[in-house]
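Ticket closed. Logging final result for Lon proteolytic domain-containing protein.
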Amino acid sequence: MLSRLTRPQALAVCALPVVGLLATTVFAPLPFSVAQPGSTANVLGEHRGTPVITISGAPTRRTEGQLRMTTIVATGPDAHVSLGDVLGNWFDSERAVMPRDAVYPSGDDVKEIEEHNKEQMEESQDAATTAALDHLGLSEADVDVKLRLADIGGPSAGLLFALGIIDKLEGDGSGGDLTGGRIIAGTGTISTGGKVGAVGGVPLKTQAARRDGATVFLVPKAECSDAQAELPKGLRLIPVTTLEGAVDSLRALETGKGEVPSC
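Final structure:
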């Protein structure tokens, strides 16, 4: 025979499953990744002791300034991200909570993702080389370009690779540097035809860029609003849609002649 519970006792008993459910929800894994600003690398210089851009078959020039590609660092695809982690990082301007599928291909394990990112980087390097040499009117049959960026994957350095090749071969076309001696950072995919594409994670990349000394950031035009959302003080945004447009904007910025677009 069951004894009858008082109202407070009944509420206490009923609350136990609710507390248990909340605890389970807070600590259960969720399909999110927590990202933060990652490293940057100057494509005009060396990365881990190795030149990022090596060119043979055509005379190259000594460059001043920097062109820094940017990255983000995210929790791994197999990481345990709970509701507590999501809530704890949601309002942190130096962190971003992103759907895991937006960071990693859905259903892939760590090894498959690493291989996928490596393939994307290689494709990006090939596209950047083609776009840059076409822009300069040079043939890939005569000019050999090697791009090396160890331990960094994905396609988002394409624009900076292409600009780096152009700066090493031609500069601004008038004897000066495409960078104007500045530290310029940016992000964006590149097609063989020179079209710049969106990449994601831009607010975190602008923070990485400013942390490492950049004063100008080249951003795919489609991601202007994202870049403005958490724009660090002292960093100027220049929207781009094509490689040619990016080159024109940098020349205008250096010479003070012509229009430099803004977000």
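Residues 37-71+111-255 form a domain with the Ribosomal Protein S5; domain 2 fold (CATH 3.30.230.10). No further action required.
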